[in-house]
Every structure is written in C-alpha cells, then in structure tokens.
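Extended Data, panel c. Modelled sequence:
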Amino acid sequence: MGAPRAETPPATRSPVVVELFSSEGCSSCPSAEDVLRDLEGDPTIVPLELHVDYWNGLGWADPFSKAAFTERQRVYSARMKKDGIYTPQAIVNGAHDLVGSDRRGLLAAVARARENARDTSAVTLVREGDALVVTVVRAPAEGAEVRLFTAESGLVSKVTRGENAGQRLVHAPVVRAIDELGSAKVGSTIRIARPKAPHTRYAVTVADTRTWEIVAASTTE
C-alpha cells in the first residue's frame, strides 16, 4: 500500500477590486457607499470609493473629489462602450459595471469575478519599514499597467448643502491618490516611499493596457 498522497493546497486567488464612483453631492450615493462599506472586512475584496468632481457645482463641493477620478470613470465608459458616466457606478475588476446601490447585483458580480480570479502571486505588495515594495511575477503578454491606490477608511462628512444637506455621511475606504507605476514587466520590483499611516491601506493592481481589466491585485497597510 503506497504512502498517502499529499494534498495540494488550494490556490490563493487575487482579491476582487470594486471601484465605486460616488459623490457627496449625489442623493443616490449614500446607499451605494453603505453596500461598499459592508464589503470592507472581506479579505477577498478590495473596496475603493472614488469621488468624482462633476457634482461639485450643484451646491456642495465634495472634499474628496478629484478630476483624475472623473477622468478614470470616463476612460472606463469609453472602453466599455457606454453612453456616459453616472453615480453611483460600481466597476468590478475593471471589467463589469452596475449601479452601486444594487447590493444583490454587486455581490453576484463579485462572486463571478472571484471564480475567475487568477493566482494572487501574479503581483505582490509588501511593507518594508517606511516603504512599499511591488513585485510583478506575471503579466498579460499584450501589456499591462501597474497602479498603486492609497485609500483611507473611517472618513465621515457632515454635508450642509446640496442634495444630501443635513446628512452625516460615513464612507467606505476613500481613494486619496492613484500612482501610475508604469508597465508591468515580469520580475520587476518597484519600491515606493510610504510611511505607515493610520486608517490607510494600499492596493496595487495590474490592469490590461487595452481593456483596463484588472488581472491581479494585492493589498497591505
């Protein structure tokens, strides 16, 4: 009788990245942010809230909004061949979009993306002292871009004007910056100075250059 066969450990899948395009000036957005915030404790999901700036002229200037996030949403819209942009819009792994407040639909989209997720070792993000170290292990042959997201959790706003006047908004992790780290070259290591900060988490993504589909991701504090 032969020796028992060693079990192969299950593959570690890359976490699913959920980007929510939102605004404090949009009355439909708080419910979507509630949905995203509920995903924050799941280690298999990277929830990212990006605040756009096209609501800022309607009574309330969102302090977390950036024109760069609006442009990112426009690029997604063009690549997905959509008619335009809106809030709240959720985009899952850069490939599928839906209304961000659709909890059931979002959970279903995340489940599908999780099933199709690739090995997380395609890219790693680790902290070494006051620096973050990104290592690309595998990348699409057609080309890919590496991006670093800085997100802050626990942010709360008291809105005094606009559609959400009088509301206290509790946010999911809010993206504060996106750094373009260049093309994904297999075996490359990128070191970025980033001292550890309270309530701040970092996510690195590898996205297909042509489609912007996120094929790998990794996170750290």
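The chain has one domain: 16-220. This feature is highlighted in the accompanying rendering.
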